[in-house]
Amino acid sequence: MNNLAKRTVVGVPGAALMVWCIFFNEYTFSFLFFVITVLSMHEFYKRSANGLVQPQRWLGLIAGIISFITIISYKVELNLDTKLCVLLCIPIFFTIFIAELYRRKENPFSNIAFTFLGIIYIPVTMGMATLIGWSSDDGLFHPSNIFGYFFILWAHDIGAYFAGRWWGKHKLFERISPKKTWEGTAGGIVFSFIVAHFISMYCPGFSRSEWLAITVIILVTSTLGDLVESMFKRSISIKDSGTILPGHGGMLDRFDGLFISVPFVYTFLELIHRY
Description:
The protein is an all-alpha fold. It has one domain. It contains 9 helices and 2 strands. Strands 1-2 form a two-stranded antiparallel sheet. α1 packs across α2 (26-48) and α6 runs antiparallel to α7. The chain is globular, with a radius of gyration of 19 Å.
C-alpha cells in the first residue's frame, strides 16, 4: 500500500471520528482533545529524550493534564474547582526544578526547559483549541466553530499536499523542510479559501469576515507550525515524530499546524468578541 493510500485509510475514519466527537456534545470532543493531548505529550517527551536531553516525562504529563483540565474547566462543566486546579499547577511546576536536583542527569536546565516546552506546546494549545467552541458573541457552545477551524486547517494540508505532489518545484524552506514547495503552499491557500467560503455559509458561530480572517491566520501560522515541527525533528535527527498514524507519522506530525495556529486564532476571537 502506497503512502497516499495509507493516508486515506487512516485519515478519512480519523476525520469522521473527530467530526462525530465535535458534534455529539462538548464532553465527547473535550475527551477527544484530552486523548490527543496525552498521546502528543507522550510522543514529544519520548522523541526529545536522547543522550543530551532527558525531560521529566511523568511530571510533565501530570502538569500538562492538570493544565489542560484547568483551561477547559472555564467553559466545560466538569464540576471542578478551577481555582484549586490552578493552585495545584503551581507546586507541580516548581517541583520540576526540585526533582532535577536528584536525577543526576547531564544538562539539567535543558531537561527542565524541554519539560516545560512539552507543557506549553501541547496541553495549553489544546486547551485553547477546545475553548474556540465558546468564542462566539453569545458565549454559547457552537460545535460548528471547531468543525470550521479543522476543515480549513485540513483543507490547507490537503491542498498543499496535492499541489506540491503534482506541481511542486520551488522549495519553500529547504533548510528546514526539503519537501515543502511554494506551489504546494499556493495550493493550500486556494483550497482553504474555497472551503472557508462554504464554512461561512453553514457555520453561523462567526461572521463571513471573521471566517476569512481566521483562514488568513491559519494559512500563515499553520505553515509556520509545520516548519517548527520539522525543525524539532531535524534537531533530534528523526524523520517522523511517531508511527501511531500510518501514512501520517505521529501525533505531532498530524497536529503540528494546530499547535502554532490555535493560540493566534483563539486570541483573535477573544479580542474581537470581548473588546
